[in-house]
Amino acid sequence: MGRGAKLRFPGIVARESSIKLWFMYQGKRHWQSLKLDPTPANLKHASKLREEITQKIAYGIFNYQEYFPDSKIAKDMIEATHAPTFREYSVRWMTANSHLATSTLHDYRKRLDHYVLPKIGEKPMNTITYGDIAELLGSIEWGSMKTRNNTCTVIRQPFEMAFLDGAIDANPAARLKNLKAQKEPPDPFSLDEANQIISIMRKDCDMYANLFEFAFFTGLRTSELLEVKWGDIDWQLSVVRVSRAKVDGEVKGTKTGQVRDVELNSRAIAALNRQKVHSFLAGAQIFINPNTRKSISRGCVLHQYWGRIMRLSGLRYRNPYQTRHTFATLNLMAGANPMWVSRQMGHTSMKMLLEVYSRWIDLADRSREKNKLEIMLNVPTVCQYLEKSS
């Protein structure tokens, strides 16, 4: 090397047959090589070039391609400007899944618009890293793990589509892990509390009283209650066939996709008989909106009414879904066969019932075992029998 190699300029490094310079750009240190001999004049030129670059970076007008057109970074930037953005692929993915239930698509759109697109929507797909996604997820205060996990889904799938299209080399979201969501345990009403709620409703609105009495004593989901029709009732066998549900105003199959027959007890039949005067002749939905006399469009209508009645009752607030849990726990505590209860509820397997209601199954079992001992204690022994007969 010549004498110039001994000169020192900030950010400039002399090599045997070239000059390297570095600068900070977009939060990263970038090294670029100049095919110039490290002479004093060339080192001075490199230093001035670096000063020019750092000034333009400071003013926000630096163009990488202009200064280093043959560099890999410049080529990647050119490619990135032509690459589809996450927003574009999210639209394509939503379009490809337009066959899904309206409620599902609405939920996907909500997650994208609220959590994802504001952060990475305009970024080219091939520039988004796993770290970018992890940072996005970590910056949000999630109301529940279920919300976070559902958001992971709407991030993963557009990337997977882009990967299968060959637009990106790998799916950076493929390694996202769903966090275990802690399910809220059942919080059922006692029989006395259920009767108290129905009694208050009976004085306020007969139709809603019938609906919720039917809910308490059949265990139907709220979405199923909205779509049960008079034609679904078999009066001779005392069963209701449950095959439909209404979610966000859209009629669809049941949550599990299965049709089931729910046996009707005396309380459920009584609720139906009282409801006949309101909707039987129309022959459509059993439970209708008392104000419009038409079908109840959305579950939120029931939630609003339920909230008002709960305030009037003075009971601790629990949501309407607890009517379903109440049905299950009342039956289990009464000694009903868990397998029968599971079928009534429409569970896909006994495992779900055992996991959700194990506490009440255990209480019922303990009560039965205790009663066996009590019966034995109250049965006279042979000695007692002989004493009485002598």
From TrEMBL:
UniProt xrefs under CDD domains: INT_ICEBs1_C_like
Keyword terms, alphabetized: DNA integration, DNA recombination, DNA-binding
One Gene Ontology term of the molecular function aspect: DNA binding
Sequence ranges assigned to domain Tyr recombinase in this UniProt record: 184-370
Domain of life: Bacteria
SUPFAM superfamilies from the UniProt entry: DNA breaking-rejoining enzymes (SSF56349)
Transmembrane segments: none
Pfam annotation, one family: Phage_integrase
The keyword Glycosyltransferase is annotated on this UniProt entry: no
GO BP terms: DNA integration; DNA recombination
Keyword DNA-binding: yes
InterPro entries xref list: DNA_brk_join_enz, Integrase-like_cat_sf, Integrase_catalytic, Integrase_recombinase_N, Min27-like_integrase_DNA_bind, Phage_int_M, Phage_Integrase
Family: Belongs to the 'phage' integrase family.
Protein name: DUF3596 domain-containing protein
